[in-house]
Design goal:
The chain is an all-alpha fold. It has helices at about 5-15, 15-35, 45-70, 80-105, 110-130, 130-145, 150-160, 165-180, 205, 220-245, 250-260, 265-285, 295-305, 310-320, 320-330, 335-345, 350-370, 375-400, 405-460. The longest helix has about 60 residues, at about 405-460. This is ABC-2 type transport system permease protein.
């Protein structure tokens, strides 16, 4: 079968939803373009808008596929670069060359500028899908333009009148391709794999990609990872010293936690909070300088951000099975239930960490948006985050290992967190801190604690598994 067909199937398998959206938008483009070709001028703008969104969506999926298949082993395939070039030529013929021909046949004004725009849209899509680091430089540009729409309108008007604008766009396209696509086509040594239970947030996109895909991190990301690794090394060194001085159960549990959760030591938690706080401050100062929402939503978002760590637990524990055999032999438990209890007790530390991060993010958000009643947000967030963390830890500890099952559990947890937070916020506002808080704590903590104890009992009855996950 042709190589270009196989490449298209890769995109369909990896990003079926995005491909379906692009095809639906292309069908809408055709629906509005046919009347425009027959002379109805009113539908041309709609056709152009749908086509640009369709092209961008399609090429985001193509960029994700390109990022997944450009592994060092792939370049050993015969004529791999040539096949990629052929596929790119076929794709450009449909999404770029054909619309440009239609533009010139219709005699539209500013045809060279439109042609450059038709080329810029798919290039942006491919780069944003294939090189997530490029989003760091692309999205701030859109944020600035959205912050000053008047200046953006004037800029567009001046650009339409300048003959150098197409050349400027072509230069920008060349720079984007050199910055975003060229690194994918270079053969580089694969970096050392990180722990599946890392908590930096920098490698989670790589974990969701295809098996064997190299983790590509920029210079800033490598420096941040080095900081996290240095904190984990110091924490492990302190845990070893404490265990050698006094080999009791407490120091033994601390040592197990440092092995399983390398980036959940106090220094790494402080670094993670500082990074999130810096991004949050930039976002609010650059975009949300005038709040357009209810400040109480900050608490809900902070809890969602704190419990977003737990889906990684299910996937990470599955991927760590072969390595857990060494831990089992080192601990030498008398029974399998003792080993399972040790692991579950070690992971329980994620609950107070999740509560702490939720409260810190809520406090930061309350300060940035100048909330009128921050104490109510913090009070409700403390109760709901505790119950939500217990429930999320329990569900992801014994939950389904398949991708679909994990997604369903994750969506259920997030929807439940939102419902409970807003219900609790309303209840505390109506009944007060004492009565409303007592009812909220009784209901939520009873549910979260009951789910956790049931899950822990079920987990202790399971036999330890050390086989590598299939796929």
């Amino acid at each position: 079968m042709k190589a270009w067909w196989q490449l298209w199937l890769q995109s369909l398998r990896r990003m079926p939803v995005l491909i379906a959206i692009a095809v639906a938008l292309w069908a809408a483009t055709l629906y509005f373009a046919l009347p425009w070709l027959r002379g109805e001028a009113g539908t041309g703008t709609l056709a152009a808008a749908f086509f640009c969104i369709a092209s961008w969506s399609w090429h985001v999926a193509q960029g994700f596929t390109l990022r997944s298949i450009c592994m060092p082993e792939s370049f050993m395939l015969p004529q791999f670069r040539r096949r990629l070039l052929e596929y790119a030529a076929i794709d450009a013929s449909f999404w770029i060359l054909l619309p440009i021909i239609v533009v010139y046949l219709r005699g539209l004004p500013h045809a060279p500028l439109i042609a450059c725009g038709l080329l810029l849209v798919p290039v942006l899509g491919v780069i944003m899908g294939g090189n997530p680091r490029a989003n760091t430089f692309i999205w701030p540009l859109f944020i600035v333009l959205g912050w000053a729409p008047t200046y953006f309108t004037r800029l567009v008007q001046v650009a339409l009148q300048s003959a150098l604008t197409p050349l400027l766009i072509l230069t920008l396209i060349a720079l984007l391709l050199a910055f975003g696509i060229a690194p994918l086509l270079r053969i580089e040594d694969r970096q050392a794999d990180t722990s599946p239970l890392e908590s930096t947030g920098l490698g989670r996109n790589a974990m969701r990609s295809a098996p064997g895909e190299p983790q590509r991190t920029g210079a800033i990301g490598r420096r941040i990872n080095a900081l996290y690794d240095s904190t984990s090394q110091r924490a492990m060194h302190r845990a070893l010293i404490g265990y050698r001085r006094n080999a009791n159960l407490t120091h033994r549990m601390v040592l197990v936690r440092r092995l399983l959760l390398p980036h959940d030591n106090p220094e790494a938690i402080a670094l993670r909070v500082a990074l999130v706080a810096s991004f949050a401050c930039f976002y609010f100062l650059a975009v949300m300088h005038r709040p357009h929402f209810e400040p109480a939503v900050i608490g809900a978002y902070a809890i969602m951000l704190s419990v977003s760590r737990f889906p990684q637990l299910n996937l990470g524990m599955t991927r760590m099975r072969p390595n857990m055999a060494d831990l089992y032999l080192t601990l030498a438990p008398e029974t399998r239930a003792e080993y399972q209890k040790t692991v579950s007790d070690a992971l329980l530390v994620l609950v107070p960490i999740s509560m702490l991060t939720a409260l810190v993010y809520t406090s930061l958000g309350a300060v940035l948006v100048r909330a009128t009643d921050p104490w109510q947000m913090l009070f409700v967030a403390a109760i709901v985050s505790a119950a939500a963390s217990l429930a999320a830890l329990a569900l992801h500890l014994i939950g389904p290992e398949g991708r679909t099952g994990r997604a369903i559990v994750n969506v259920s947890v997030l929807l439940g967190v939102m419902a409970v937070y807003w219900g609790g916020y309303w209840l505390v506002g109506i009944a007060g801190y004492l009565i409303g808080g007592a009812v909220l704590a009784l209901v939520t903590l009873s549910f979260g604690g009951g789910v956790w104890f049931a899950a822990q009992r079920e987990y202790q009855q399971l036999a330890p598994r050390f086989d590598a996950p299939i796929g």
